[in-house]
Design goal:
With 266 residues, the protein is of the alpha/beta class. It has one domain: Rossmann fold, CATH 3.40.50. The protein has 10 helices and 10 strands. It is globular and about 55 Å long.
Length: 266
C-alpha cells in the first residue's frame, strides 16, 4: 500500500542552518499494516509523514501509494488518498463550525460541490450513529461548535473525519500526546477499533514505548532520518521498553535523548 524509495529531504539547503531530515529513507507497507514509529528528537518521524502527505517536496526518491507514484503531486491532490490526525487537537477541524458540519465536510472530500441542501436528515442519522459509537455523549450535540469541545472529544471527532472515507493510508502524528492519560487511552482504543474495523493501513508516531509495542503489528525505530530497526509479528510482541532502549543504543551508537520517551518507558 505504501512504498518509500530512497527519499532524501534537506531543509535550508546551502545555508548555515542546512539540516538533512531524511537520508535514503526506504519503507514498504503491506495493505492493512499498522506500524508504530518511535525515535529520538529530530529523528525524522514527522518529516516522514509530511513528505508522504506532500507538505514538503522531497529532494529525490519516490512516494508510491497503492501502486500510484505521488511524488510530484501537491498536498491537496494527495489528500483523497490519505487521512491524518495531528498532535494538536485544535488542528484538523473547523472550530467555528458545528460537529455535523465538520463531519459533512469530511464526507464530501474529493467530491464536486453542488447547490443541494447542506446536510440531510438521513445523513445526520448516520453521523449520530457514528458519534454514539465513540461513547462520549456527542450524539446529542450535533449542532455544538467543535471549538467548545474538550481536547479528547475534538481529537475523537478528528479521528472520525480522517477515517470517514476509508483512506488508503492513515497518518497519526503523536495524536494522543497533548491529551491527559485517561483521554489518551480512550482515543487509542478508538483508533485501534476503527483501524481494525476498516482494515486501514496506518502509520502512528508515538513517544510512548509501551504503546509502540502493544499497538499494531509492526514497529520501526528512526534515527538521523532513516530506519534503524524494523520488527513485526511475534518478535514485536515479545519486546520490552528496556529492549527498545538497548536496541536504540546499539544501532544508533548513542543514548536516547527524547525526554518524553524516557518518561513513558515504565
Amino acid at each position: 500500500m505504501l512504498e518509500i524509495k530512497g527519499v532524501y529531504k534537506t531543509f535550508n539547503r546551502g545555508t548555515i542552518n542546512e539540516k538533512r531530515a531524511l537520508s535514503d529513507l526506504n519503507l514498504h507497507l503491506n495493505e492493512g499494516d499498522f506500524v508504530t514509529v518511535i525515535g529520538g528528537n529530530g529523528a525524522g518521524k514527522s518529516t516522514m509523514l509530511n513528505v508522504i502527505a506532500g507538505v514538503f517536496p522531497v529532494d529525490c526518491g519516490q512516494i508510491i501509494i497503492d501502486g500510484q507514484d505521488l511524488t510530484k503531486l501537491s498536498e491537496h491532490k494527495r489528500a483523497k488518498h490519505l487521512g491524518r490526525v495531528f498532535q494538536d487537537p485544535m488542528t484538523g477541524t473547523a472550530a467555528d463550525m458545528q460537529i455535523v458540519e465538520n463531519l459533512a465536510l469530511a464526507s464530501r472530500r474529493g467530491k464536486h460541490r453542488t447547490l443541494m441542501p447542506g446536510v440531510r436528515s438521513k445523513e445526520k442519522n448516520i453521523y449520530r450513529e457514528m458519534l454514539q459509537s465513540l461513547d462520549l455523549g456527542l450524539e446529542t450535540r450535533l449542532t455544538s461548535k467543535v471549538g467548545l469541545l474538550s481536547g479528547g472529544q475534538r481529537q475523537a471527532i478528528t479521528l472520525l473525519m480522517a477515517t470517514l472515507k476509508k483512506p488508503k493510508l492513515l497518518l497519526l502524528d503523536e495524536h494522543t500526546a497533548a491529551l491527559d492519560p485517561k483521554t489518551a487511552h480512550k482515543v487509542l482504543e478508538l483508533t485501534e477499533e476503527i483501524v481494525a474495523k476498516d482494515k486501514l493501513t496506518t502509520i502512528m508516531i508515538t513517544h510512548n514505548m509501551k504503546d509502540a509495542i502493544s499497538i499494531g503489528n509492526r514497529l520501526i525505530m528512526m534515527n538521523d532520518g532513516h530506519i534503524i530497526y524494523d520488527v513485526s509479528g511475534e518478535e514485536k510482541k515479545k519486546l520490552t521498553t528496556a529492549d527498545l532502549l538497548e536496541k536504540f543504543k546499539t544501532t544508533s551508537g548513542g543514548e536516547l535523548d527524547n525526554d518524553r520517551m524516557l518518561l513513558s518507558n515504565d
